[in-house]
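Here is one such protein, fold included:

. . .
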Amino acid sequence: MTTRRLRSAKIVATLGPSSSTPQLIRDLFEAGVDVFRLNFSHGTHKDHQDRFTAIRQIESATGRPIGILADLQGPKLRLGSFAQGPIGLEAGEPFRVDLDQHLGDRRRAPLPHPEIFEALSPGTELLVDDGKVRLRVETCGAGFADTQCLVGGTLSDRKGVNVPNAVLPLSAVTEKDRADLAFALEQGADWIAFSFVQRPDDVAEGRKLVAGRAGVMVKLEKPSAIHRLPEIIELADGFMVARGDLGVEMPPEDVPSVQKQVIHACRLAGKPVIVATQMLESMIGSPAPTRAEASDVATAVYEGADAVMLSAETAAGRYPVESVAMMDRIACRVQKDPLYHSVLEGTLIEHEHTAPDAISAAACQVAALVGAAAIVSYTTSGATALRAARERPKAPILVLTSRLGTARRLAVLWGAHCVHTRDVKSFGDMVHQAVRIAHREKIAEPGQRVVITAGVPFGTPGATNVLRIAWVDR
């Protein structure tokens, strides 16, 4: 088995009831998974601990660093319960929501979230059950809102509520999230994904809690976060375009353009971005996707996303391995298209006036000019590899790092093939190790050239200042 992927875009897969045995996790890895997502909205800590163990055993057996993304649940806003079971609500009917703890009926329902009422004003819409029922606030006060039903449907116990046009005075991190975060960091998660991010302050809170022990990933699922995207991009390490939630809180026709804008902005910032939700959803129950789903995955790859993600397809579906294999084939096919790199190269990248940025940009240009088989990036923190991937070069990026945590975190990065190795001690050692590993990993053949970037003194984070062209010995 070769663990080198023949594509630049990475695959993230969610583990769940359909994919939690060690053998299934191994099968998913062999089918193409680069990063495993553990969804803390479901499962116990024991369930997740078993998954951590299985992933690290595969990593040890294959020698390929594997990323683990711990996805925190975030606040969940829900209606209370109804006395007589589900009710039907017609368009035009009045309906009250309030803080009263009594069970709901045809005229009202409890909404036990004071934060929502603090943010309401006449005209605000409430979306219930992923927008299946829409209510518009007519009048509101302390602890209540009288609404008119805009889109009718069935209301039942504990259905979710979204407030798309308001920023709620609510932390993105609940007590459950804090416990899950502590557990995930203890287990060695490489990325922590924060849900319900509305403002930059939410990201700052997450960074403080993580304290550098993992990468901070923001799930972009609220319109308010999109409105402040530049500020949020500065604070986070990576991003997930959570299109399902975005599609509830904004018109569906707006989501594709938001996806494109986010991918573009993240690439310019040199920060990984994952496109997620409903990518191959029909494969939850079918062995093949629809043509529209295949096009959806291909579009994200064409746009230059670092990774595409599977959710219920691998967590709860009947065909988890087939879903990964299909996503792998789509990404590989896109990469063979001559238009693929021409589209990516059309993006104008503004470079910082720093030595690391200059070396990374030059390495990609030199690799293209000399037809190098690979760009070899020595990195400690991962910053050099991030700058190289930002250029979206045709040559693969062989990332060599002495920090296993860095190799695991960069498993989500576009074009990066990560190898955990020792620090080098001299220029000769640097070149020898680079060409030896490039050949061993089947990235470069004897007689081909590689472009090497590193920093002197060796092993110093942020000191990339060397570019070298080397031949792979025959």
Q: What stands out?
A: Residues 355-471 form a domain with the Pyruvate Kinase; Chain: A, domain 1 fold (CATH 3.40.1380.20). The radius of gyration is 24 Å. Residues 45-62 form the longest helix (18 residues). The first strand starts at residue 10 and ends at 15.
